[in-house]
Amino acid sequence: MEISAYFTITIKGTDKIIDKSECDIIYTNNKEVGEATVKIEDNGKGNYAIKNTVKKTFTIKKRTTGEPTGLTGIAPSADGATDGKITGTTVGMEYSTDMEFTSPKPCGDGETAGLAEGTYYVRYKATPTTAASNYVAVHVRLNTVTVVDANTKVTKHKSGTSVTVTVTIPTGKSFIKWVYEGVTIPTEDVTKQEITFTMPEKDVKLTALFEDIIYNITVTNGTPSAPTAKYEKEITVTADDPATGKEFDKWIVSGITLSDEDLAKSTVTFEMPASNVTMEATYKDVIYKITVMNGTATPEMAKYQAEVTVKANAPATDMYFDKWEVTGLDTTGMDLTKTEIKFQMPAGNVTFKATYLTIEKFEIYVVDGTKDKSPAKAGETVTITANPAPAGKVFDKWTCETAGVTIEFESATSSTTTFEMPAREIEIKAHFRDVDAPPSVEIKVEGGTGAGTYIQGESVTITANEPAEGKVFKGWKNASGKIVSTEKSYTFKVTGATTLTAVYEDTPVAKKGLSGGAIAGIVIGSVLLAGIGGFAVLWFAIKKKTFADLGVVLKKGFTAIGNFFKNLGAKIKALFTKKK
């Protein structure tokens, strides 16, 4: 194919145009794109005799064409598939995945198949005489479904296919409904967690709406900062103050996981989990210490209200226990002078200190005798011995000459004897009698007064002490255990040394449930049983007649005996009438 240039021929210096038929026009290299030459010479057919030849060079450029039209992108069947295509293509076209056509590929006749999802750029191919056309962008794509719920996710689908979407619910939320764009969801489906629709020819957006779930906080032995809370809300729980003698131990929880460190805190703060929470504060006994100076404690550690015994150490020589000094314990009503004390442990540490005093010793003065020690402390046993008796005399007895002091000698009539030292200075005297004089006799009294030394034949009165509560005086017994008197104050003549002991017994329990008449019936019945075989007992106990009736009955059967019991019945009746 030859390419001609467009030009006009004029006579030099004029505007006169010469017809091309009057010239020979010769082209060189005018078949391809590039530089071409045209030479013009007079062919002698015209009216002008042109002597010169004109030669011109011109450029042959490639022809341009318009961009392709009528192209349609067909999406692949699924995301990742390569069965997409472009329809409307020709073999004179090419496509590329980039606008620079770095690696163009030829198009098919009618359609270009085997395409993955994407945007393709299509143009007419260049020829030796034609430049490549401008490109058009053809979208071979799937439409997107964007789901906004706990996590935003995007999926791709071909129009006309069925799409199912299931909501992902965030922790601590409950699903309300779907809000949709690009598709129409039936009203009855918008509240369903799973929906199905047909993919339209456009992108779809589905937004899930949620609301907070409100969870309960149940606390035993404590208080939460709020009774309910949503997920991740900060909550503080404080345990109640412990009871006396207790301290917070730990939390027992369900519905939440806490560290061992937090479980041991009486006040704990946490973020609300996606569940109800139950917490119980537990407590344990506080163990308190008992510190004892100069003594021991059993036990040495104790909980509140446990029984504790403290015992003082034995005193050193010539010392005696005085009292306890106590801190940390209310000692009201306690006898702090006892060496052993029991108490209930208070809610705190306790300190006991046993204090001691030096034992005071007292002088002993012995007239006409000697002692084994002096001074002596109270309660100590002292041995005394009388001096040898003067001529014509023999030892008779010992006496305490100190006013207001009574000494009980082991044997007041023995020349060598012992006694228990009182808490004061005393004078003891040995007495002697004529050899032919009657000896003194020692009368010892236990549980009463009147003990001492007496001369045989002398009259002595001893008196029993008042009985303790719940007891009554029974009598005096001698050394052999025989009751010699039932009189509280007993007077007798001294016949020899003896020891008399006051005897007491339990107070009799008063009988209940029997009236005077009933008691009388029993007494009378007992008497009659001994005398006449018990007929009146049965009659009186069952019939409960009067004492006069009893006499009448007896009189009818046994006149003489009846008169006796009639009088007896009247006397007993009078006795019980007075007691009423």
List keywords for this structure.
five-stranded mixed sheet; 580 residues; four-stranded antiparallel sheet; 7 domains; mainly beta; Ubiquitin-like (UB roll); disordered C terminus
Helix content: 10-25%
Q: Give the domain tally.
A: 7
Number of helices: 5
Structural class: mainly beta
How many β-strand stretches?
48
Adjacency order of strands in the biggest sheet: 43-41-48-45-46
- Which blocks of ≥5 consecutive residues have pLDDT under 50? 514-562, 571-580
Average pLDDT, to the nearest integer? 87
Backbone CA Rg: 69 Å
Q: The biggest beta sheet, please? A: 5 strands, mixed
Q: How widely separated are the two ends? A: 167 Å
Shape: rod-shaped
Give the DSSP E fraction (strand runs of 2 or more residues). 35-45%
Structure description:
The protein is mainly beta. It contains five helices and 48 strands. The longest helix has 21 residues, at 559-579.
List strands and helices in order, with pairings.
Layout: E1 9-10, E2 17-18, E3 23-28, E4 34-42, E5 54-60, E6 72-74, E7 84-87, E8 93-96, E9 105-106, E10 111-115, E11 118-124, E12 136-140, E13 143-148, E14 153-157, E15 162-166, E16 173-181, E17 194-198, E18 204-212, E19 214-220, E20 222-224, E21 228-230, E22 234-239, E23 246-254, H1 260-263, E24 267-271, E25 277-285, E26 288-293, E27 295-298, E28 301-302, E29 307-312, E30 319-327, E31 340-344, E32 350-358, E33 361-362, E34 364-367, E35 369-371, E36 376-377, E37 381-386, E38 393-400, E39 416-420, E40 426-434, E41 440-446, E42 448-449, E43 452-455, E44 459-464, E45 471-477, E46 483-485, E47 489-493, E48 498-506, H2 516-532, H3 535-543, H4 547-557, H5 559-579
Parallel strand pairs: 13-18, 19-25, 26-32, 34-40, 41-48
Antiparallel strand pairs: 1-2, 3-4, 4-5, 6-7, 7-10, 8-9, 8-11, 11-12, 13-14, 15-17, 16-18, 19-21, 20-22, 22-24, 23-25, 26-28, 27-29, 29-31, 30-32, 33-36, 35-37, 37-39, 38-40, 41-43, 42-44, 44-47, 45-46, 45-48
Helix pairs in contact: 2-3, 2-5, 4-5
